[in-house]
TrEMBL record, chains A, B, C, D:
Protein name: Germination protease
Subunit structure: Homotetramer.
Catalytic reactions of this protein: Endopeptidase action with P4 Glu or Asp, P1 preferably Glu > Asp, P1' hydrophobic and P2' Ala
Lineage of source species: Bacteria, Bacillati, Bacillota, Clostridia, Eubacteriales
One MF term in the entry's GO annotations: metalloendopeptidase activity
């Protein structure tokens, strides 16, 4: 039987954490349930962490994490964006607690001056904000319209106030039923760079995100349920180096002892060696696609459209366009 | 003895309210004390409202209102800006309650997309924000540095959340000792357009400001003292029309009965007539100088520099530049 | 027979110039032809100046000037915007010389930091730029697509280079068949504030525009035909004062000699007197609606949509949205 | 004697090209002269390509390329910025042709929406633009002030016009004596990421820059001398992978045949293998520091301050601050 050890590295993606913890084991990580589904070009992976042991091994709180992988999103194909929008809308609807029947507050984390971290603010710009309209719109529309508010605290620049404090203050004052936090994530795998969306009903936890999110946004800290939607917009340079060595070693495997020695070291020792040798040079560097600016906009379009549809199921699309 | 009637028109400036209520009377408005001083090119007028009757007549809460008038500010003379900065720094220091020894939160009201309303956000950009630095700076500096936070809620665009709610939430979470609210004001007199700063220890009250501030920021609503700093950035088109008629009538006074008839009508009847005739056409229009963008920046420089000096009396100017 | 005198005041609108020159005369200004048409809620006035005398009297070069007036545009009604878009598209198509079958260069004049002057840059942002696509799109589309380029020299900020020099340089290098210049105009009448579009086949002439356009853009200066599209975004404060006095005097006419004296003075002497008395105080001030920022965006939507339709008659609307 | 082969890979930095072409040879690349100097913490390397053979081997035109390396610039130390500013000012002065006594046009290449490519526009924002002031300033200052113009064509977004065409048009119209082009570069070495400035008297050549510069800016294309100032703001992910493999292999050299096999392959075969294996996965990805936004601003401050000093040697620093 496999001997699972708690995860050592940091990744914002539950699916990556699970793959790392599981390694080559032929059984599932204890306390974790994983479910795959392919919907046209979108691969849907549902990771559920349902025991304390699972949470400990995965380094993540119990809850549901749905990953939507669209490997070719970076090709900027409009039909892919439409497919992702459709699937994402359904998944968001699915994870919104049934008890939520009042205001939803969308929080766009991140700093809009740094492109890979600007996803949150750009989604917020595109959200259909309705909370302030309830006194203005006709009754007919009002009945079908959910009150939605949206803030992007990072566009305020340097304020001297922690994001959590700002959001907590706003939540305490406006009493939303649900907070949806949108954030840019760092992934370990190149395949997920601008090609992967994670939705989690556990909120956002310290250390996540592309910038430095020092404090989490969760039911514990805010007092209301927090749905987190994240997109991988950067990969740490360290991961690239590891991947490069791995790929190259595999190619040279027949001729070279290198691969075997690496294999004998075991994956974690091997990573330890690389960490030691490369960390100083590659720490703090991140990898992004050249067209990051366009891709962030594409993704912001998809997320905002999906959120608008999921949050306003009783409004016709033409009523807000 | 003069028969004072409560003010009918709206003005954000206490000095203008007093001039209107007083009219041609040769005595001061009851419950109001006014004090003039000239400091080089800056005219300092201190209006104190100290009784309920004064507050009722003036349409403003009891408290101190200091107006600094610099009629030639629009000429963009650097030495004028320096003089105003010096005087303003002293006045701000003077109005900061002595009990304030912890965090000060600077709030820049207004929307940065509409130039005349962008003063608040532009001041916030220039504020020396220190609250997040206390764990980082050397003890020597830390002792001399007051924690300052700064937010400009209007730069968030349409959020569906009232400014007051957002600020109240942040105040409840971060517990500042004092809020300083910076706002663009509408004045009645052309002479005050981008040439007049008002500092008041009463906070900001509903209906003030260039945009629609629906709710006030004050000790009552926020639970901490609120110092309000306002600059006239627009004049209502209505005021221009009144002023034009007034000036023209004076010029024609010798030849024309018009002036006498206007005089006989009494000032308020006369204004009532103009309101009736012109309101529909001129309501909602405002007057700004052509170089509004540059002037707002000049003023933001002066306000931010004055605030930084007043809030950090123990830091040397070179330590933050 | 009326004795027409050349226009003394400046207005960017041909229709206003004609009304001023004509005054109370019961005949048309010589060398000028005027034609009215109502298309639903859009009033179309076509002014043609066809002799040297007409040009001299009107203070404008010979050519066609079409004004579209939509008095209630400021009410922000979507159907009004659609009507204006439809009419404007037709008028632009009509004024594009038939010989134009290659690149059209859209130039958005003005500075995007000053809201009333930001119309040009905001239109440029929304233009369907196709000139760089000709090597990329399928032949089928390429055949139906007109190459369009678009620049907004004022967004470059302070460059030390005259707008005309920059545009002339770009024209000489890229050889467009037609330049379409979009500009914010100053009107004399409140009714035209954000409610009036002028299209002229004469280009833009010195002194026009809300900012300081020191040099014109015309066939003479650029060597290619220039279509000018202008929208009134400000009214000079001076005009407001005149209008106020005029309206008030009319109201008081029965009781007051003022009106009669003004009448006896004759309109131009009367204006001369006001100029003398008010110019110093009101010069350099301009009047804008409170919601100027939203209205400029509404108008930019209408202009860009009309231009895109007029310039791409063979593309289906869905092909660029 | 070493057998030098023309460079195969692309790098914007002459110093890197020389190191690659030279490889392990113990002699200098023919037609190339290299000169090192240390000025406090700034390492100055002067590469001169002076023969056709040198140009062919290096893949760069004949001319002078000065590299200033400041390895710890990413630590954000103010004194390092001051040292770099001092050295850079001198080097720019040195490379400005003595015949230049009239207008200098500073061109900031790049797109300000994509942080690593925004260096050029951010430098332009900070340039002391004086060309439009000559009629305004007092004669005393005018005599000492060089006319400087500055444009950042990329801030216009999609215009449909090639940058070269726009700049060429402006140059033909305004006749500057010198163009200084500021650009963000891609380097191969991590050590140069936001820590290296290259000044070249050869202009900018196709394929350089972080974005896609399809055409060069040079004396040939513009008709006036072009000084190019570039800063490495990204490193291709491919280079990271190579560097990682190289470092790791060295560490494992004693135990492992891998290094020897790589060695036997020869550097270029080895790179060829990596290209083949990794190119598809890493192509189009780039590496930037996490704090890219702050670092770009630091560098823009240094470049603009150095340019202002070098271009205005007869103005006192206090006259423009």
């Amino acid at each position: 039987m496999a001997n699972f050890r708690p995860i050592q590295v940091t990744t914002d993606m539950a699916i990556e954490a699970r793959d790392i913890v599981r390694g080559d084991a032929h059984e599932e990580v204890p306390g974790v349930r994983v479910d795959h589904k392919q919907d046209q070009q979108v691969e849907i992976t549902r990771v559920e962490i349902f025991t304390d042991e699972g949470a400990h091994l995965m380094g993540k709180p119990q809850g549901h994490y749905v990953t939507l992988d669209v490997p070719h999103f970076r090709d900027r194909d409009a039909s892919l964006r439409q497919e992702l929008t459709r699937v994402l809308t359904d998944q968001i609807k699915d994870l919104i607690p049934k008890t939520v029947d009042n205001t939803v507050l969308v929080v766009g984390l991140g700093n809009w001056n740094a492109t890979p971290d600007a996803l949150g603010p750009r989604v917020v710009e595109r959200i259909l904000v309705t909370r302030h309209l309830s006194d203005i719109v006709p009754d007919d529309i009002k009945e079908r319209m959910r009150p939605v508010a949206a803030v992007a605290p990072g566009v305020l620049g340097t304020t001297g106030i922690e994001t959590l404090d700002m959001i907590k203050g706003i939540v305490d004052e406006t009493h939303p039923d649900l907070v949806i936090a949108v954030d840019a994530l760092a992934a370990r795998s190149l395949d997920r760079l601008l090609g992967s969306v994670q939705i989690a009903d556990t909120g956002i936890h310290p250390g996540s995100g592309v910038g430095n999110r020092r404090q989490g946004l969760s039911q514990e800290s805010l007092g209301v349920p927090v749905l987190a939607i994240g997109v991988c917009t950067v990969v740490q340079a360290m991961s690239i180096a590891e991947e490069a060595v791995h790929i190259l070693a595999q190619q040279l495997a027949d001729d070279v002892k290198f691969y075997k020695i690496l294999e004998e070291l075991g994956e974690s020792n091997q990573k330890g060696l690389m960490q030691e040798v490369l960390a100083e040079r590659l720490g703090g560097l991140m990898v992004t696609p050249k067209e990051i600016d366009l891709l962030i906009n594409d993704m912001a379009d998809v997320l905002a459209e999906s959120l608008n549809r999921a949050l306003q199921p009783h409004l016709d699309r033409s009523e807000w366009a």
